[in-house]
Design brief:
One of its GO terms (biological process) is cell wall organization. This is N-acetylmuramoyl-L-alanine amidase AmiC. It is an enzyme of class 3 (hydrolase). The protein is 32% helix and 28% strand. The protein has 2 domains: 40-156, Sandwich (Immunoglobulin-like); 167-407, Aminopeptidase, CATH 3.40.630.40. A 6-stranded mixed sheet has the order 12-11-13-18-14-17, sandwiched between helices. Strands 5-1-2-9-8 form a 5-stranded mixed sheet, with no helix packed on it. The relative contact order is 0.14. The protein is of the alpha/beta class. α2 (190-207) packs across α7 (369-390), α4 runs antiparallel to α5 and α5 (294-323) packs across α7. The longest helix is centred in the C-terminal third of the chain and has 30 residues, at 294-323. It has helices spanning 3-17, 190-207, 225-234, 263-276, 294-323, 360-367, 369-390, 396-407; strands at 39-49, 52-59, 65-70, 75-80, 83-85, 97-105, 109-116, 120-128, 135-143, 153-156, 167-173, 211-215, 239-246, 257-261, 283-284, 287-288, 335-337, 349-356. The site of zinc ion has 5 residues, from loops.
């Protein structure tokens, strides 16, 4: 089944589940609803020339933003930090542009989606347009004639008006307490070796400038899978890394495997979260859903999840590349599965089966501090590789990456 069909099915499913049809208007916030420091997006204009579409946002001040493209359907997503639309944003269609949508995101941010008629490259520039408080964000769209474009994530910033923060990594040592996980022939417990690797990784991360780590459990006790997700969300983790050891009924399988969430796992989780929102879940994917109708909510969650799935895959790929230097991979691709701990809709997540505890040689390795230290080092390497290009806007690492790319 092609991706686009699956995506369409998923949206249809969400819409049916929510008993909705047709498009709903996006919410427009009244001017009194936002903080005095928020940047106002006062309007949006178009200019068209030579197959290019230029979208110009008029702003009351400089704004942190990030821009990325998604496909199936093709769209450009622009997240403005600490910003509000002071009026509904409308644009007429162009050969490239189908429509514009926007909605508040989280407590203080604004998400704008440009729906496209076809694949397009997108870039953004923030310019000071004269007048003390007048800025423009210019987004250029140009059609792509061949191939599928790589999703681009660019972050442009001008005059940071917020202190930069550390990226936060949630480390999840598998199992614990009454749940030992897999047990090796020599009596090695999975819960014990993965906790040790996790502790080492936590120390390494906390030593890195611009990075912070915490664990879902820091000793031998039981935590439910949902409890692990809740801890990651509560601490606003930017990344979630679950550490396990593999087991097989046979003694021969060996090596390391990296998993990310399968598309089916993601869509069923979106459905579950949306179904539960009447009860206690009013924030899904960093989106405050309490003041949104169901279709808007499902579109926002869907958008956030596609972006998270793509980011998780990049994380998985970097981890695999780094782990490969320590232990042979069991699987040479990043595997996809519906593990519950990978289901945060807004936190890029990966699960690492470090080695087979059921393989006698690998059980021996898992028992040595040396191997655990190398594995922790490899995980740190993969995480740093990932953040080099995908650190969230507003973090020390994102700013450092931007400076290096511009001036390096
Ligand atoms: Zn496990």
């Amino acid at each position: 089944m092609s991706h686009s069909t699956e995506d369409a099915d998923r949206r249809d499913f969400l819409r049916r589940m929510l008993g909705l049809s047709g498009m709903a208007a996006m919410t427009v916030i009244s001017p009194s609803a936002f903080a005095s420091t928020a940047v106002a997006v006062k309007g949006v204009r178009l200019s068209e020339s030579g197959g290019k579409t230029r979208v110009i946002f008029d702003l009351s001040g400089p704004v942190h933003h990030s821009l990325f493209t998604l496909s199936h359907p093709d769209r450009v997503v622009i997240d403005f930090d600490n910003a509000r639309a002071t009026r509904a944003l409308h644009l007429s269609p162009t050969p490239l542009l189908r429509d514009i949508r926007h909605a508040p995101r989280g407590h203080s941010d604004l998400r704008v989606v440009l729906d496209l008629k076809s694949d397009a490259d997108a870039s953004s520039t923030l310019i000071k347009a004269g007048g003390a408080r007048h800025y423009q964000l210019v987004v250029d769209l140009s059609s792509v004639s061949v191939g599928k474009p790589q999703p681009v994530i660019t972050a442009a910033q001008a005059q940071p008006h917020r202190p930069l923060r550390d990226v936060v990594v949630c480390i999840d040592p598998g199992h614990g307490g009454k749940d030992p996980g897999a047990i090796g022939k020599r009596g090695t417990y999975e819960k014990t070796v993965v906790l040790d690797i996790a502790r080492r990784l936590e120390k390494l991360i906390n030593r890195e400038p611009g990075m912070q780590a915490f664990m879902t459990r820091d000793s031998d006790y039981f935590v439910t899978l949902r409890g692990r997700l809740a801890k990651a969300r509560k601490r606003r983790a930017d990344l979630f890394v679950s550490i396990h050891a593999d087991a097989s009924p046979y003694r021969y399988p060996k090596g390391s495997t990296v998993y990310v969430l399968s598309e089916h796992g993601a869509s069923s989780e979106a459905a579950r979260l949306l179904a539960e929102r009447q009860n206690d879940v009013d924030r899904v994917a960093g989106v405050n859903l309490s003041n949104k109708d169901n279709l808007v909510a499902s579109v926002l969650v869907d958008l956030a999840q596609s972006a998270t799935r793509e980011a998780s895959f990049k994380l998985g790929d970097k981890l695999k590349g780094s782990i490969d230097r320590v232990i042979r991979m069991h699987s040479n691709t990043v595997e996809r599965a519906a593990f519950v701990v990978l289901k945060s809709p807004d936190i890029p997540s990966a699960l690492i089966e470090t080695a087979f505890i059921s393989n006698p040689a690998e059980e021996r390795r898992l028992r040595t501090p040396r191997f655990r230290a190398s594995m922790a080092g490899a995980l740190l390497g993969g995480i740093k590789d990932y953040f080099e290009h995908h650190a969230p806007p507003g973090t020390i690492l994102a700013e450092r990456g931007r400076v290096l790319r511009e001036f390096g």
